[in-house]
Amino acid sequence: MSPLGNIVILTGAGISAESGLQTFRAADGLWEGHRVEDVATPEAFARDAALVHQFYDARRARLGEVEPNAAHLALARLDAEWRGKLLIVTQNVDDLHERAGAKRLLHMHGELKRGWCLACGERFAWKGPMSPHAVRPELVDGLSVSSQEEVQSFDKLRTNGGLGDLGRSELRTNGSNQCPSCQAEGQVRPDIVWFGEMPYEMEAIEAALFHADLFVSIGTSGAVYPAAGFVQTANYRGARTLEINLEPSQGSIFFDERRYGRASEEVPKWVAELLG
Ligand code: OAD
Q: Which atom of ligand 1 is nearest to 262's Cα?
């Protein structure tokens, strides 16, 4: 490939696994104990906003306990040094790519550290919990005591359990879920793309795939569309395709080259080869 080739890199939960964030589909995965329908759909939010908020509050708090690993750092180095076009498209809602220094980055499934106001439509940075409700102990399992305290310090309303019955009307009634733009109460949701919703930046991603010389997929199971179909778009447009993963993904047969191992080892090795 020419030194000025266009590169598109897709990352998934596997790149953050060695930082200590659970993947989605592993045996000990994030969704274990929580059906995806209960925490990652607009219907779940309409039915039980408290549960959804607390689930994401716990995930957001966890970010303070983890650091980018060698794979994130290697991609940030590639971003800084690659003189051709480059785009990192992540399905991850964590902030480890940007904390490693990546700049040419899109979060197609949204970000834990952003909120979206359902009243005025604004999206904005969000720090700390979004939930005005008490925390269910099982949602903060696995967090350190300090993260649990961080989550619970925002527990201004309830300590009596029974959270399953709390709905949006109650969210509206207190002051810890206020839109910084229109000041509406209880209308801010996580700016995360839930199942059944359209991923972000699809136009920009498709344009990049159309002009890619190399498409690399790192640490993703290839189970969730549209991201799982990027390799086929890239193939169709004549790009070379590479998969880096712990094991063959569901779409592994579509890749020209496959490298299996830990992202923290395989990604730095690949970047070093590319940069020469
Ligand atoms: P998955 O949990 O489905 O897949 C993670 C992949 O990473 C698996 O193929 C693992 O083999 C691999 N893996 C695990 N540890 C690794 C390591 N140390 N090095 C390299 N690879 C490793 O996560 P995603 O494919 O990212 O969507 O999931 C895609 C989407 O499904 C998520 O963004 C999320 C989820 O539902 C939404 O929330 C909309």
A: 19
CB 122 near ligand 1, within 6 Å: no
Q: Provide the percentage of residues in the chain whose pLDDT is more than 70.
A: 80
> Do the beta carbons of residue 5 and residue 216 sit within 8 Å?
no
pTM of the model: 0.86
Q: Are 91 and 10 in contact (CB under 8 A)?
A: yes
Choose the catalytic residue: 53, 72, 107, 109: 109
Q: What is the pLDDT of residues 104-150, one digit of tens each?
A: 999 999 999 999 999 999 999 999 899 865 444 444 444 444 444 44
DSSP per-residue string spanning 132-185? -SPPPGGGSTTS-HHHHHHHHTT--S--S--GGG--HHHHTTSTTSB-TTT--B
Residues in the chain: 276
Q: So what's the pLDDT on residue 176?
A: 75
Q: Which two tokens stand for residue 158?
A: 């309830």
Question: Which uninterrupted H or E stretch holds 230?
Answer: helix 230-236
Distance 224 CA to ligand 1 centre (A): 9
How many CA atoms are closer than 13 Å to the CA of 179, on its beta-carbon side? Answer: 19
Peptide bond into 137 cis (omega under 30): no
Q: How far apart are CA 262 and CA 213, in angstroms?
A: 25
DSSP string, 104-132: SEEETTEEEEEEEETTT--EEE--S----
For 274, other C-beta atoms within 10 Å of its C-beta total 17
Q: How far apart are the first and last CA of the chain?
A: 12
Query: Can you tell me whether residue 11 is helix, strand or coil?
Result: strand
